[in-house]
Write a structure and sequence with these properties.
By secondary structure, the protein is an alpha/beta fold. It has 2 domains: about 160 residues, D-Maltodextrin-Binding Protein, domain 2 (3-Layer(aba) Sandwich), CATH 3.40.190; about 120 residues, D-Maltodextrin-Binding Protein, domain 2 (3-Layer(aba) Sandwich). About 40% of the residues lie in helices and about 20% in strands. The protein is built from 10 helices and 10 strands. The strands form 2 sheets. Strands 3, 4, 5, 6, 7, 8, 9 and 10 form an 8-stranded mixed β-sheet that branches. Strands 1-2 form a two-stranded parallel ribbon. The radius of gyration is 18 Å and the shape is globular. It starts with a strand and ends in a 6-residue tail after the last helix.
């Protein structure tokens, strides 16, 4: 299972939780390989070129399987070069800030950014988080710099040490907020998260246009036989049905989808709809590869 980002980030954590449980139904270990770089395109590209035999799959997400297609000249086609296996979890996004920012809430953060144009910086971990930052700027009339990182873990670490000001990323990083190392200004989820009820939604600040939930799914190379996809899907469903796996995923603020969304068809439909929605937005924002 290729994870297209470094170890320690939310994509890696989700992949490892699911892979560990999939081992049983498949009757063999599922080995995680972290292949990071270029906003996930290197790892995803490796899976696109792999033999379609079911022995190489990847954890994909909104950034790698939607956003990257609007930014990069890829050597693979996100619409046709992968076989969807299963949607895994939703990944609510949080707007995190370093402790040194004087703003106490999102309204004050926007005012602070407006008062200090181009002085603040957002750590971007994927083309998707860059797109969210650019969309945030457009909707709030703010300006700040983008600083690219190879993964979430190093970006959050630099947020903790105050090297950057903002990170728009997974709610899985709430442990750093709970430890008092960084601030959480808002979630882009439509509702407050069960494990982080004190963090308001962007909609509560009148920014419902920023409401958004990312997601993770499993993909195989194009041409992987249907019976193999079926077996991999069954193993993924077994993992998602396991009480321990569900607890571990919700513990890191991931959202579980209803069972009828665990099918290859549901994931394929989602990717198509997300591409149709986001590609025009991203291209209009003129986001370039980092």
């Amino acid at each position: 299972m290729v994870v297209p980002f470094p170890a320690g980030g939310p994509t890696d954590i989700v992949g490892r939780i699911v892979a560990e449980r999939m081992t049983g139904p498949l009757g063999q270990p599922v080995i995680i390989e972290n292949v990071s770089g270029a906003n996930g395109t290197i790892g995803v590209g490796r899976v696109a070129r792999a033999a379609p035999d079911g022995y190489t799959i990847c954890v994909g997400l909104w950034g790698t399987h939607v956003v990257n297609g609007a930014i990069y000249s890829l050597r693979y086609d996100l619409r046709t070069d992968f076989e969807p296996i299963s949607l895994i979890v939703g990944n609510p996004v949080m707007i995190f800030g370093k402790n040194g920012i004087p703003a106490k809430d999102l309204k004050e953060l926007i005012a602070w950014l407006k008062a200090n144009p181009d002085k603040a910086s957002q750590g971007t971990t994927t083309a998707g988080t860059h797109a969210l930052g650019a969309f945030f700027q457009k909707e709030t009339g703010t300006r700040f710099q983008f600083v690219p990182y190879r993964g979430t873990a190093p970006a959050i670490q630099e947020l903790v040490t105050g090297q950057i000001d903002l990170v728009f990323d997974s709610a899985a990083n709430m442990s750093q907020v709970q430890a008092g190392n960084i601030k959480a200004y808002a979630t882009t989820n439509n509702t407050r998260l069960a494990l982080s009820p004190d963090v308001p939604t962007v909609g509560e600040f009148g920014l419902s246009t920023l409401s958004f939930t990312s997601w993770y799914g499993l993909f195989a190379p194009k041409g992987t036989p249907k019976e193999v996809i079926s077996r991999l899907n069954a193993a993924a469903a077994d993992a998602l049905d396991d009480a321990t796996v569900r607890h571990r995923l919700t513990e890191i603020n991931m959202e579980l989808f209803p069972r009828d969304q665990w099918t290859p068809e549901a994931l394929g439909t989602l990717v198509k709809a997300e591409i149709e929605k986001w590609w025009p937005i991203i291209k209009a924002a003129n986001i370039k590869s980092e």
